[in-house]
Known about the structure:
Elements (H helix, E strand, L loop, with lengths): L8 H10 L2 E5 L8 E6 L4 E5 H4 L17 E2 H10 L4 E3 L12 E2 L4 E6 L2 E6 H9 L10 H4 L9 H8 L4 E2 L12 E5 L5 E4 L1 H6 L11 H14 L3 E2 L18 E2 L2 E2 L9 E2 H6 L24 H10 L5 H7 L1 H8 L15 H9 L12 H13 L5 H7 L2 H12 L4 H8 L13 H11 L4 H7 L1 H9 L3 H8 L12 H15 L4 H7 L1 H9 L3 H8 L12 H11 L4 H7 L1 H9 L3 H7 L5 E2 L5 E2 L2 H12 L4 E3 L18 E3 L4 E6 L14 H14 L4 E5 L7 E3 L2 E3 L3 H14 L8 H10 L12
Parallel strand pairs: 20-21
Antiparallel strand pairs: 1-2, 2-3, 4-6, 5-7, 7-8, 9-10, 10-11, 12-14, 13-15, 16-17, 18-19, 19-20, 22-23
Helix pairs in contact: 10-13, 11-12, 12-13, 14-17, 19-20, 22-24, 22-25, 23-24, 27-28, 30-32
Amino acid sequence: MSRLSDYSDQHILDIIHAAGYVRLSGQHSNGQSVHELIHSCGMVNLKDSKTLLSDKRHCGFIPCHPRGKLSLLYLKTIATRLGLDDVTHDQEGQTELRRLTISANDLLRWTKGDAVMTQSWHTVRSRALSCKKGTFFQSDATRRKPRSAELSLSTLALCCAPKRLALPASMPARRADKVEYTHIACGGTVALRFVELQQWSETRCPHCHSLEKTALDAFKAFLLDFEMTFDGTLEVMERKSQVKRSQAISITCNLCHQRNDARSYDLVRYRGFTYCDNPGCSNTYLPADRTCEPDQYYIDLLRTHGIRKFADGQRLFPRSMRYLKQPSAASPKGAKKPLRKYEIVQQALDLPVNTRLAEFTDDDLRSAFQHAIDAGATNIGAVRAKLPNDINNFISRRRMAGDFVHHRVLANMGIRFKRSYEIASLHDAIECIRDTKSATWAEFVSRYPGASTSIIEQGLKEDVMASFGWTSLVNYSRLTNQQLLDKAGELRHAEQLDTLALLERAYGSLIRNIRERGLTADLCAAQGFEQTAVWQGMSLDDLVRHIRDNDFASSSDWHASSSGSYKYAATQNWVREISKRFNWGIYRGLNGFSYDSLPETIVANLLHLADYEFIDHPPIEHFPGVGGGRPTADFLIDSPPLWIEVWAYRTDDVVSGKLASYPSTRKHKEAGYLAHAMPLCSLEGGLFYRPYLLDGKQYRRGMGSFVEHACNRLTAHGLPIVYTPELLAELRQSVHNQSDSAFIQL
């Protein structure tokens, strides 16, 4: 039978039954004959005879087709499986349920007892699969944020009193309205919203802290990186918010206390003349920084040190770079102006020239973004790395002004770089894990919490573990009290763990179950452990004394070594106060998280500004720490996986005091990363404090060198970030007024 008309109606009916359908109406006469069919999932499909004889006869609704049409009947089965009472649609009742097709963006009414949730399937699914503990049902009463309380005179008075601001003449109608407050100290007025009022401090008063003082403070902070100080004043240009670059200033070396010769502010601030003029000082110019040498000498100098920009050369060799800028004595015949030496060097090394400021429209950006995506960019950071410098500078200027223009344009283009997985069957789950190249279930949960949650909710975890040959973790909550104690004793003797702290560090979930059931005393008595300290009732000063006696280096060290005291301090809201006393976690990043060191904060801000999604202090499941327990990394890029560590010292550095074991601990972690094939990007945080020779390039110590080094290393590991003076200025501003510390935690 080669023609459709040669098939009988019985042949078509047999095909219908074999595909899982029951025919409601219709009869075959030719290829265009329409059959009304109901599938085993309960939905009605309309198929003609030609389609039934092809490979497209299958049901077109979810879950039969993973990308099929959405039906209310399918959502009702999901609601029943998750313990909800019902889900309804506005068209329900007007159309037969087995014929009702809806959109994922249609508003639905989900009910669970008296609670009601009014949200679309798209929103509910995204929320349930977007985080590690995504919640499917959230009633309208608990989900919607309550309105802020009305502003009152007493509320404003409480905010104004410690800031020495006088109450405004009239109350603001809304919290977002700006009103003028008078600073009592100087009599000047400042216009603030209520949120800005809460964050305002006297140091932000434009009348008390003028541009001259602000610029002077910033210049002194800049010189601290180079062990130099300035005790004079700066002159500001009239009717311009900038320092006069031509004014002569003289800076002093902190090491030998010699005052440098007077130079212009431009040379010191922007041209690299921050070295000491004393030839015998260790802070003086590098020996290779010479003048009056042939052109080839400077070409070799820049090539040897891996310098690709004149700005980088100025920081290391300011005298040589200034000499290159001077006109040559001889020029070719017919030249309109003398040929400068730096042009010869620039042409020989193909160095980039200065980028002029330019403005771009959204259409210009859209075209540049599309060109970068066509060239292989797979995330926003990669797009930025492939853009021309003038466009990147424009984006940075707009971002500093509060306009994230690149986010807006990319959103309008409908660009989504992070892939989302929808798990509907065991096959989908296995393919998802294979696609992500996860080596263990723990790694998959850490990198893709939404997909792993979906697998667990559908009861597919055990089958997935069996498919990959993975071993499930022991569920201690199913054991009886005596079984828990016996298991603890068995593990204690097998691992030769002499204290409860070591046992807890190795088997935290087991000890947590024992603590929750109040069996800690029984365990200590059975195993001969020393009874743990009773923290309840201790004062803040007692806890501070306990931390000082044990010489904990950070809040994470305290938590890992004495979890009982830490948890008690958390219940009393003392953790923040104790951290302040010991200068722990005093640095706050742009993402709102706290960090224990300034270099770590700078790296977090760098990744945040480059639009890379990362996890702070992720636990390492693959290998134990030096003293047992679970170590943590500094950062983890989710996809593709990349672990980032900001090291305080190199392995060959000589360290004394509290961090004497730091190099050996670093060796242990690096060996663990290597043994488990975990990609690692090592950033030398010590460069912030000490000069290093890294990757064949000599770096001076300080923030500028550290940021440049971090950009180079991250770019080499597949996270392209373009180092620019604008980026460095933005990072300096992000950590402004945050003091430094000599400790960088592992």
